[in-house]
Amino acid sequence: MTKATTFLYDCDTGIDDAMTLLYLASLVQAGEAELVGVGTVHGNVDPLTGALNTLRVLEAAGITEGVPVAVGATRPMAQDVHYALDWHGTDGLGDTHLPAPAGRPVTGSAAAQIVRLARSRPGELTLLATGPLTNLGAALLLDDALPSLIREVVIMGGAFDHPGNITTHAEANIWHDPEAADLVFAADWPMILVPLDATHPTAVHDDWLDRLAAHDAPVARFAAKILKFYEEAYTPTLKRRGAVIHDALAAMLAVDPELGEYVHRCVRVELRGELTRGTTVWDARSLPAEDTRRPVQVAVGSDVPAFQERLLTALLSL
Ligand SMILES: [Ca+2]
Fold first, then answer.
1. Active site includes 82?
2. How many other CB atoms are there within 10 angstroms of residue 112's CB atom?
3. Ligand 1 mean position to 242 CA, how many Å?
4. How much is the pLDDT for 223?
5. Average pLDDT of the residues of the chain
6. How many CA atoms lie less than 13 Å away from 110 in the CB half-sphere?
7. Model-level pTM?
């Protein structure tokens, strides 16, 4: 059993972020994790919508206090903003148009919240990021000491030996703010990066989705309802009924890294490529690293049955 992980979560809620919030809520309720705060960022939806969705999901999971939700960056550092409404619905939760949450976002930006919480819990926080990295980049600019204050950064993003999911080569979270992502990969902090190479093979299909849909508890019904939209968006890509719940794999590897297979590589983001802007690049040559960056622990695979079963068990436990 791993010891309790203290999460600060940065996301763009979003259907797979919502599933990740439910997974984190199950860990909190089992005493296996603490969730000290959430920040939201532009990405799947605008960050205020993402923050209200985060509150809706936490409240659905029974977490009604103690987790401040801060609204973060409304746009990337050096390009226009784009949302992913085709994948997540106009409301970010599969066009379910849920009522307003009871809680409100806190005042202050998500980047300032990262710095404040890192300063108040030095060396303790796992900073989990499953949206564009603008808030993390901004937090690094706010406080030079941030990397030394964070226990570990775990990011869903990038694609290496796998096609992109927003352009031919780029994965969406990185492509939405390449400059911020490159700042984050350049920082001297321990990092696990969970790219499409690891997440795409975890797609859930009929059996998993039917088991979730058959469970008669309000949270499972909520999860099945929002997944319906996502599953319909994914089916043409997967060529069968299914969904890739990318963000939850990053959360699970943060708790139990033993579930993943990794390589250690310095990572950079292509910022100027005509066809490849926003692509993650590593040097995979078997030579001593020329790059001065701290190598990143990049997940290239995982124990897929264990991931799927643990995620389903978590959702059914709420
Ligand atoms: Ca996300």
1. no
2. 18
3. 17
4. 97
5. 96
6. 33
7. 0.98
